[in-house]
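Subject: two folds for Thursday's group meeting

Dear M.,

Sorry for the delay on this. The cluster queue was jammed most of the week, so I only got both jobs back this morning. I'm pasting them in the order they finished. Each block is the input sequence followed by the predicted structure tokens. Could you check whether the formatting survives your parser before we put anything on slides? The first protein is the one we discussed after the seminar.
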Amino acid sequence: MKPGGEWLHYAVRNPKLLIGSFLVLVLLATGLIGPVLLDNGDPNEYVGPQASPPDGTYWMGTTTFGQDVYAQFVHGLRATFLVGVVGGAIAAVIAMLVGFLAGYRGGLVDEVLTMLTNVVLVIPALAVLLIINAYMGVRSVAVQGLFIGLTSWPWAARAIRAQTFSLRTREFVDLARLSGSGTWRIVFREIAPNMSSYLFMMFILLFGGAVLIASSLDFIGLGPTEGVSLGLMLQSAQQWSALQLGMWWWFIPPGAGITAIVGALYVANVGLDEVFNPKLRES
């Protein structure tokens, strides 16, 4: 059986991977399709009765100001996935460039890049993000994802460096080097494909981390200045005493959405680890 076929064979039989992936896809589809199906394009518009519980018209009720919680939820899902993709992708790209180069070249290049990684690693990323967000007049989801990506890559770079360091002495790498291939050609044609499963799992963790960091910033009032996200929904519910007023329909959906996204990613990642690692596979 070919490696790809073998992985697929175990993937379709792994309940953790199937459940986690299914939940992520359902939430992603809701975030992509839900806003399109709404009559109102502005989730923050005052459209209904104030503080109304869920009913046939407003599926998730309304806020203290008469905003549709369902409209905010589906728009918030889209924004939350966007910041996860942007932040996770930027962090993954930086981690791969730094980790591959440091692990393959070694020597002075490795020392310089490792020092840079350690410096960024010990910087309190959340504190830096707090300062940056506090001094920015206009903040968007994309900009938030950019700053999260620029501060969350060091641990992944160190892990990739270690894996690359062990692969660079393999015979197929020596053959590529003897054939005259350059550094990046060897890295992306020989080393990276042998780490594809590891890199994919790393991106999932970076994705989930970006979602949690963004939600934390949103909750303390340093999220995007325009639009809506799940973290901003929680911040608004807390600010206007939804818990004290018994308006559970305002704070439970965004909290459950964030938990579901991060939890499903973690479960899917555990399932992928069992699929890719022969020692963890269930017969």
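Second protein, same layout:
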Amino acid sequence: MAISAKDVMELRKQTDCGMMECKKALTEADGNFEKAIEILRERGLATAAKKASRTAAEGMVYADYCPKCKVGVVIEVNAETDFVAKNDKFVAFVKEATQVIMKQNPADVEALMACKTENGETVDEALKNLILVIKENIKVRRFVRYEGVCSAYVHGGGTHGILVNFETTNGIEAKDEFVTYGKDIAMQVAAANPGYVDEASVPAEVVAKEKEIMLAQMAGDPKTANKPEAVKQKMIEGKIKKFFKENCLVDQEFVKDGDLTVAQYTAKVAKDLGGDIKIVKFTRFQKGEGLEKRADDFAAEVASMVK
């Protein structure tokens, strides 16, 4: 199967591996990206793939929470240039769309476009009017809406938006200390980028695939290749524990106090406030993740390497 320069460029973006390694992996995988990433990981050339780690579009991410109605929203709206994120009309549109989502609970972006704003026009009409003013292509890309106790956090003026959903008892969510705690957890999600809330929320197939990759890495390492199977399995157990600690929010070291895990910090705050706190779920949006900017010079560089 012929591997295009564009495919090699995309795999390099997803893994940060060298171009020739990416071409070899894609060739071996018959062009299958997921398989190619797995091959690179097995060879120790790529870490656990963060395929959307490179920001590739402009605009902004925004998050907000209404304590009175107990609804939180995180939204991403994309544009062509970074100047748009600083435009007052653009920011006002993003915030208005957020309020519409909070109040009307549309099922998806298409449904959101049909919702009415406070001045009677649809969100779609408001967007088209904004495009006429700003003269850039603007799109509402995605949003998540949670009901219940939440914490919303916007980082970097709209580069990241975090929404965390909690379960609480005894009304402790109304206390200032809980608000501070909620922001801490949202900032933890922004900084440490966990993939899951806890070990129980990690799908079994994800754990199985991690073990498979770890075994392949051991097989390719002269230091571990000939070790007894029982020893390898013991090593795998340790590696999986490390995987959970790095990828599960409650198991991570708390960024503001490395002596505590997030779970320990949560238990401490709950005890101090006289109630219970459970982190239920979270969403972390990074502006432009998974989208692609024009990179003509880089594409030419890759093309020259793979011809």
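Two things I noticed about the second structure. The chain has three domains: 5-52, 58-193+281-286, 199-276. Strands lie at 58-66, 71-79, 139-147, 149-155, 160-168, 253-254, 257-261, 277-286.

Cheers,
T.
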